[in-house]
Structure formats: structure tokens, C-alpha cells
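Course exercise 7: structure representation. Students receive a sequence record and must write out the corresponding structure in C-alpha cell form. The form below is the worked example handed out in class, using Phosphate transport system permease protein PstA (305 residues). Read each field label carefully; the graders check that inputs and outputs are placed in the correct fields and that the protein name is recorded exactly as given.

STUDENT ID: A-19
EXERCISE PROTEIN: Phosphate transport system permease protein PstA
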Amino acid sequence: MTLATDARVAPVRAATFVPTSRRRRCTDGAARILVWASVAVALVPLAWILWTVTAKGLPAVASSTWFTNSLSGLSATTPGGGVYHAIIGTLLQGLVCSVIAIPLGISVAVYLVEYAGASRLGKVTTFMVDVLAGVPSIVAALFIYALWVVTFGFDRSGIAVALALVLLMVPMVVRSTEEMLRIVPTDLREAAFALGVPQWKTIAKVVLPTALPGIVTGTMLAIARVLGETAPLLILVGYAPFINFDLGSGEMGTLPGLIVDQMNNPGAVGADRMWGSALTLIGMVAILSIAATLLARRSTVRGGR
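STUDENT ANSWER:
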């Protein structure tokens, strides 16, 4: 009876919870304010750009002929026309670039993750990918010009632009694919090896399908990134106000090229076309980014939980 009374009076052990000190609460509050202020400062330029481009480009984009006509036959001061030719040119160059860059980038990433290990070739490949990722777009364009036009003697064309974009897109595909392959659980590989499955078949049937959603997301972001490059267009193909489906020869209209061309048109018509082209290009990139975001929600590696 005496023991029970003592147990009610004194706790079994001292309380372990210690209230947060005032100094720590003040520091946490200051850090929160600093973070929110940084986010606000970073969003102001983005919001300003989107508002300006939308306000000035929407009248041109709202035209009934904007997406169905080209500027062929129209003078710099004649209103009307559209960007049909520029959209076609941008998509064709992006398609050729993707066909070359995506398999190449994924293959390099598979080698680095699955085969290279700590080998010297793997270290050299990683170093070269890092160097290529930091190459400015105009340097890539000049390299393709020296190789494709000066050395091989081919004409300036959409193919040359696509090759320059490949140099810019491959490092992005390699890095995004590499990250997704590294988070595939090792248990999946070991289970396949234990069943006697060869390594190449394990990669093709287990590793790549598991990481596929993330690879697709990174690839789409890379495509969106290279579609707005301007330096390769100015050096390797020029600009044409008409539709050109031939990637092997002739000038070709693209959205970045149209923006640069209309900057030299000082009239109101040129300004409308320039801002409308910028809004159209942002819309194309936004569509790809939104699609990549939706895929990212499903990019969790299956079996990784």
C-alpha cells in the first residue's frame, strides 16, 4: 500500500520532452521568411516574362490564320499570315534530333550504370558528358558548321541544325536516364541473375522497363529545352518565310528564327509577329513540360517501395 502511494506521487522517470527554446523558434521563423522571400524574388521575373509575352502575343495568336498560314508572299508591313511554316520546321528539326539523341543518350547511360563500373573508359565517358553539357549552343553550331559544311561540303540545312541540337540534347538524356537507372533496386537485377538470365536481357526486360517513366520524362524535358535554341539556326540554316519540308537543303522557317527575323522589322506588324511567335514557342515548351510533369507522377520505379 505504501509503494502504490509513492508511485502516484513521484514519476517513474523524468520527462524526456523539452520545449523548444525561444532562440530556436526565432531562428526557424527567420529561415522560413528568408526561404519564402527567395521564392518570391525568383518568381517575379518569371511572372513578368509570362505576363508580357502573353499580353503582347495574344492578339497575333488569336488570329484565325495564325496556325494555318505561312508568311510566304507577305511583305514586312502586310498584316496577316501565320507561323505554320515555323511550327513545321521546328517540329521536323526536333524530330530528327530526338531520333538520333535519345537512343544514343540512353545507350551511354546504360553503359555507365550497368557496365562501366570504376573502369577508365567509364571515367573518361563521364568526364566527356560533363564537358559536353557545358558547351554553349553557338560552339556546338560552329563545330557542326566546320565538320558538316566546311569539311564534308554539305549545304547549310535543317539536318545540320538537328546535328547541332544532338550535341546539346545527348548530355541531358544521359544524365536523366543515368539517375533513373541508379534508383532501380539492385534486388531486381540479382533476382534475374539468380534465375540465370543474361545481363543484357536483364537490362532490356527488367531494368529499362522499370525506369521507363522517368526516362520518358527526362527525355521530354530535354526536347523542350533544345526546341528554343537559336544559335544553331542562325549559323546552320537561316530563316525562310515559307514551308520547307526538305531537311537536306534550303533555308527553313522555325519559331526562334522567326522571332529573330521579325526583330529586324521595326513596324507594328513585325512586333505582333515577334511576340506571337514567342508565345507560340512558350506554349509548345509548356505542353511538353506539363506532359513531362504528368509522367513524373508515375515515374516511381516499380518495385522500389
